[in-house]
Specification:
The protein is an alpha/beta fold. The protein is built from 16 helices and 15 strands. The strands form 2 sheets. Strands 14-13-12-11-7-10-9-8-15 form a 9-stranded mixed β-sheet. Strands 3-2-1-4-5-6 form a 6-stranded parallel β-sheet, with helices on both faces. The chain binds nicotinamide-adenine-dinucleotide. Residues 9-15, 35-38, 41, 59-60, 76-79, 81, 99-100, 126, 128, 172, 185, 364 line the site of nicotinamide-adenine-dinucleotide. The site of nicotinamide-adenine-dinucleotide (NAD) has 26 residues, from helix 1.
Length: 424
């Protein structure tokens, strides 16, 4: 097996996830360079990948000032810092693992897509859902024809109330001007996966949604700006910083609090006193929606309803309806329910068995692992798995999010062809 070398630009949560793969599969990947301004994060990478010490920098501009010295550049900086390093890495001849969104505006996305196409860059946008057993199995099932002609899909993305409060109220993506709007940031995965499952183009969109719960109007009486300053609701509020970050938080959430992947409870507690994750969730300068729906019309009259919202524990559910049958599945369960319309008798389908790859497990329903396998096939063997999303397709699927957001603001139905023609 060919070992591929990688550099990582941005050693935050995502950068650490992808580089961690080189520790798990050392025959497949090695990490030989890092650009990250925070010492503790840069050192974390060097500790796990000693070869990266030779090319360790504090800014992406410095690592990309060196002529190409690795096979792959991982671009895992924040949303508004994807385009510039990606363009430079493309120019240098790197193949790319590029975090989503490609960029926060359609114009920037287009520039990047055209540059990658012109250079012939092999580039995977991190639409990790495509690489999960769950969605691969659904795709396989649709393509088997058992549902007949797909006519309609209802898909729900439950962001989860704690995840919403962490990422989209207190954290990195709370403000659309600083990062990107919710549908692009969080649900570009879902819009992409729906297009992939259907295999046709989206023609029109309509959307509604707003920020209604995580607002000052719902702030409990007497709640201070920071939870640890003696909030009277400390015992009952499930968003209380101490309850979340020293109790229910997942490791990736906890790590974000201190910017330190190896933080102790004491470090976390200290950071919560005046840090952004210690703020009352009803007193943050967040502006991204906490619930939104999108209606879509695809080619051949296929209709899709998508709902993203914070008011659930988290998870994705889908109902696919065709002329010959219906499939109901939940990403949190290995079993899907198929009902052929001819018998109306429901059958259980084991999704992991039907996708056929037990090694695809871990973060994002196995998607983080699946995409690293696919990246290796693509770069080492020039072999694109069926999950691989061509960059032009990723761009067009990003346009669904941009057009839907326009609809949410204007109240109008937006044609994708017309929207695309306006992107200069
Ligand atoms: N594919 C997915 O499912 C998925 C999930 C979560 C996040 N993301 C995306 O991944 C990206 C990163 O998210 P994250 O959670 O890792 O964020 P993060 O804030 O943890 O990581 C970003 C890192 O970039 C570093 N950085 C800042 N300026 C830099 C510079 N000049 N040069 C190099 N590095 C610099 C920061 O210090 C930070 O460590 C975001 O765009 C996000 O949308 C994707």
């Amino acid at each position: 097996m060919k070992k591929l070398s990688m550099i990582v630009i941005g050693a935050g949560g995502r950068g650490r996830t992808y580089t961690g793969f080189a520790n798990k599969y050392p025959d497949m990947y090695e990490v030989i360079g890092v650009a990250e301004p925070l010492d503790v994060r840069r050192e974390y990478i060097i500790k796990r990948h000693p070869k990266a010490a030779e090319h360790a920098y504090t800014h992406w501009k410095d690592i990309l000032a060196v002529p190409k010295f690795a096979d792959i550049a991982i671009i895992s900086t924040m949303d508004r810092m994807h385009m510039e390093p990606a363009l430079k890495a493309i120019e240098l001849g790197y193949d790319l693992l590029l975090e989503k969104p490609i960029a926060p505006t359609p114009e920037e996305c287009k520039v990047l897509v055209e540059a990658a196409e012109k250079k012939g860059t092999r580039i995977l946008v991190c639409h990790v859902l495509r690489y999960t057993n769950f969605f691969r199995a659904l795709k396989k099932f649709i393509d088997s024809g058992k549902l007949g002609r797909v006519m309609s899909i209802v898909h729900t993305e439950g962001v989860g109330n704690l995840h919403q409060s962490h990422s989209f109220v207190r954290g990195n993506w709370h403000n659309s001007e600083e990062s990107s709007f919710m549908l692009l940031q969080k649900s570009c995965h879902d819009l992409d996966i729906l297009q992939w499952l259907i295999g046709k183009e989206c023609k029109r969109v309509q959307s509604f949604g707003s920020l209604s719960y995580f607002t000052a109007a719902n702030r409990p009486e007497g709640a201070p700006d920071y939870c640890l300053d003696g909030c009277p609701k400390a015992d009952t509020c499930r968003f209380h910083a101490k309850t979340v970050y020293l109790g229910t938080a997942k490791t990736w959430m906890r790590n974000a609090v201190c910017e330190n992947p190896e933080a102790t409870d004491e470090d976390v507690l200290e950071a919560l006193k005046r840090g952004r994750f210690g703020r009352c969730v009803f007193a943050c300068n967040n502006d991204v929606v906490d619930h939104q729906v999108v209606n879509m019309e695809f080619e051949d009259d296929i209709t899709v309803t998508f709902s993203m919202n914070a008011f659930n524990p988290g998870g994705r559910d889908i109902r696919i309806m065709g002329t010959e049958g219906e499939l109901i599945a939940s990403m949190s369960k290995p079993i899907a329910y198929y009902t052929p319309l001819s018998t109306a008798k429901t059958e259980e389908i084991n999704l992991i068995e039907s996708a056929g790859d037990e090694s695809i497990a871990g973060g994002h329903g196995g998607g983080d692992t699946g995409i690293m396998f696919a990246l290796h096939d693509l770069v080492a063997e020039n072999k694109a798995s069926e999950s691989v999303c061509p960059i032009r397709t990723a761009y067009k699927n990003h346009l669904i999010a941009f057009a839907a957001e326009e609809s949410r603001h204007t109240g109008k139905v937006v044609s994708l062809d017309e929207y695309e023609s306006r992107v200069k």
